[in-house]
DNA sequence: TATTTGCTTGGAGTGCACTCCAAGCAAGCG
DNA sequence: CGCTTGCTTGGAGTGCACTCCAAGCAAATA
C-alpha cells in the first residue's frame, strides 16, 4: 500500500465566505461552541451529525465533552459545501462511510462526487433558465410602472 | 381504485423532462389528469395548491370536476420555475394574492420578484464555488486512481 | 344493469433535516 | 458553598412540501 494522505482530505481555506469566524491559528482542540462560531451550524446539528455518522469519531475530554480538531473543521467545511448544493444527508453519510473505509474506496468516492457534480451543473442550468423568466417578468412590471409614472406622476 | 394519483402513468408520452409536453392546440379546458400530464405535478399537489391559495380560482364542470385553462397552465409553469429556484410556497402564495388583487400591486410584485432574482443569483454563485471544490477533490481521486493504475495495472 | 374509471373531499400521514427539551454533570467564580 | 455557564444525553417536536387515504359520486363501458 502506497503511503498517501487518505482520509478526510485537506480542504484548505478556500472560501470560508458563508458564515463563521476564521480559524484561530495554532489551535487543534475546539469546544462545540467554538465550532458553532466557526461553522454557523448549531450545537444540536453538530451532535446530530455525529449521531447519524456524518462526522468521523470526535475526540472527548476526560469529562466527556467534545473536542473538535482542525481536521474535523475541514470535514465540516466540505459537508457544508455539499449541503449547500442540496446533497441529501444520506449521501453525505455514505461518503463519510467510504472515507472511514480507507483508500480502497477512492474509486467509489470519485464516482459519487462526479455524479453529484453533474447534478450541480444541471441545477445551475435550471437556475439560469429561471433567471431569464424572472428578468422577463420583472421587465414587464418595470415597464408598466414607468408607463404609469409617465401618465400619472405623483 | 385510483391508479394514477402518484405516478403519471399516461403522463410521459413525450419528454417529461423539464416541464411537461407541448400543450394541445385549440384547447382551453383541461381535466386534472391532463394537467398532471402537462406539468409533471401529481393530482394531489394540484388540489393542494388550490387549497392553499397558490392557484387562481379553477373552473368546474357541472359535476364539480376541475377544468383548467391555458391561463392556469401558464401560471403553473411560472410556479414550477419559482419552485425550482427554491422559493418557499408561502412566498408564491403571497405572489398569487398580489396577482388576485390586480394592477395596483404591480410595484410589490416587481419587488418580490427582484428580491427573489437576487437570491437566485447568489444561489448560482454558491453552486459555482462548490463546483470548484468538487473539481478539486475529483481530481485528487482521479490522480490517485491513475497513479495506482500505473503501478498496479490489472 | 353492473363494473370500471376518473374524479371529488377533509383530514391524516410521510420524509427530510433539523430543533428543542428535560434532566443532569462539571468547572469557574464571588 | 451556591450560582452560573457550558456541556452531556435520548427522545420528542417542528416546519415544510407534499402524499396518501377512505368514502363517495358521475359518466363511460361491458
Automatic annotation (TrEMBL), chains A, B:
InterPro entries: DNA-bd_dom_put_sf, MerR-type_HTH_dom, MerR_fam. Residues 29-98 form the HTH merR-type domain. Residues 1-27 are annotated as: Disordered. SMART domains: HTH_MERR (SM00422). This is MerR family transcriptional regulator. CDD domains: HTH_YyaN. It holds the Pfam family MerR_1. The keyword Secreted does not apply. Keywords: DNA-binding. GO terms for molecular function: DNA binding; DNA-binding transcription factor activity. It comes from Streptomyces antioxidans.
Amino acid at each position: 500500500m502506497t503511503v498517501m494522505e487518505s482520509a478526510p482530505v485537506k480542504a484548505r481555506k478556500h472560501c470560508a465566505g458563508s458564515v463563521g469566524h476564521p480559524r484561530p491559528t495554532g489551535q487543534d482542540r475546539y469546544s462545540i461552541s467554538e465550532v458553532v462560531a466557526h461553522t454557523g451550524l448549531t450545537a444540536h446539528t453538530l451532535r446530530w451529525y455525529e449521531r447519524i455518522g456524518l462526522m468521523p469519531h470526535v475526540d472527548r475530554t476526560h469529562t466527556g465533552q467534545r473536542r473538535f480538531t482542525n481536521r474535523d473543521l475541514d470535514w465540516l467545511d466540505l459537508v457544508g459545501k455539499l449541503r449547500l448544493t442540496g446533497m441529501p444527508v444520506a449521501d453525505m453519510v455514505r461518503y463519510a462511510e467510504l472515507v472511514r473505509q480507507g483508500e480502497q474506496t477512492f474509486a467509489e468516492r470519485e464516482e459519487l462526487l462526479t455524479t453529484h457534480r453533474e447534478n450541480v451543473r444541471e441545477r445551475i442550468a435550471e437556475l439560469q433558465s429561471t433567471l431569464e423568466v424572472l428578468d422577463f417578468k420583472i421587465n414587464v412590471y418595470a415597464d408598466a410602472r414607468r408607463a404609469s409614472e409617465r401618465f400619472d406622476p405623483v
